């Protein structure tokens, strides 16, 4: 899961609930101080949240882009129903379309990891609200075989245990697999709070999407939007060569953020923001 480098919102941003035709969604909304050059909608990944983009908000706003990071349905502070059908990919894609409409349309869209699959589905359903699509740390189809196995184990645990028990089991497995990552008490508390705030049916349904997603690259290549594929130099969820191949088939701008893994937005935010701004400036 992504680990935000900090949690305090910059002065240019505020937290509130964005009202849409499909309900309200918790967002962090960063406004540029000068004339806005565009609006960016940032969609998080599996087990993620709007906080995964907190380090991007200020540099994007400084460059003139209104940046809106969202908790999707059932994620962290947005809440959602206790029914797996509510989290089918088509439902989540329609949520993204509603969020874009609520922001006035003409939006640069970015999806991280699972968010890349959801935003792809949204664009394939209706590309008209969008100015461009950026797919971050996401490949063309299902996640790698090793990650599929891990995700199946998580789905099984979520169907048999409560969220607290699953959290404790994940911590135990992580400890057995090697030294714990150096995290602050603040980060530990946030990660647990985010986990406990996420609807288990959302994790089950989206986990199944990650292990069964078909390759829709050819379909996406036919959509007349500027496209950007960005990832770290390493990625545990999708092999980087598969991300490279997808970008080539899409005729997309390709960015590899050196020194970053699956979450360049959190691990190397300055370099990531620079690449995003460069792409959006060209897309305009």
TrEMBL record:
<dbReference type="InterPro" id="IPR000073">
    <property type="entry name" value="AB_hydrolase_1"/>
</dbReference>
<dbReference type="InterPro" id="IPR029058">
    <property type="entry name" value="AB_hydrolase_fold"/>
</dbReference>
<dbReference type="InterPro" id="IPR050266">
    <property type="entry name" value="AB_hydrolase_sf"/>
</dbReference>
<dbReference type="Pfam" id="PF12697">
    <property type="entry name" value="Abhydrolase_6"/>
</dbReference>
<feature type="domain" description="AB hydrolase-1">
    <location>
        <begin position="40"/>
        <end position="275"/>
    </location>
</feature>
<protein>
    <submittedName>
        <fullName>Pimeloyl-ACP methyl ester carboxylesterase</fullName>
    </submittedName>
</protein>
């Amino acid at each position: 899961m992504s680990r935000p480098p900090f949690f305090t919102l910059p002065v240019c941003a505020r937290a509130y609930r964005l009202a849409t035709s499909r309900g309200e969604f918790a967002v962090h909304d960063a406004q540029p101080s000068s004339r806005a050059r565009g609006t960016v909608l940032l969609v998080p990944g599996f087990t993620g949240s709007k906080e995964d983009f907190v380090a991007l908000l200020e540099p994007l706003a400084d460059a003139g882009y209104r940046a809106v990071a969202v908790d999707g349905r059932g994620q962290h502070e947005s809440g959602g129903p206790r029914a797996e059908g509510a989290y089918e990919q088509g439902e989540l894609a329609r949520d993204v379309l509603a969020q874009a409409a609520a922001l006035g349309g003409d939006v640069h869209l970015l999806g991280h990891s699972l968010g890349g699959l959801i935003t792809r589905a949204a664009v394939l359903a209706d590309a008209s609200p969008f100015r461009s699509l950026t797919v971050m740390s996401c490949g063309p189809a299902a996640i790698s075989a090793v990650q599929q196995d891990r995700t199946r184990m998580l789905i099984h645990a979520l169907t048999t245990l409560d969220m607290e028990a699953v959290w404790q089991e994940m911590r135990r497995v992580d400890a057995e697999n090697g030294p714990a990552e150096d995290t602050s008490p603040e980060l530990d508390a946030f990660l647990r709070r985010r986990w406990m705030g996420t609807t288990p049916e959302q994790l089950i349904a989206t986990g199944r999407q990650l292990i069964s997603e078909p390759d829709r690259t050819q379909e996406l290549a036919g959509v007349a939007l500027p496209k950007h594929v960005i990832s770290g130099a390493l990625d545990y969820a999708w092999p980087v060569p598969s991300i490279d191949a997808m970008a080539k088939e899409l005729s997309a701008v390709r960015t590899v953020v050196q020194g970053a893994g699956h979450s360049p937005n959190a691990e190397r935010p300055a370099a990531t923001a620079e690449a995003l701004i460069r792409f959006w400036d060209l897309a305009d």
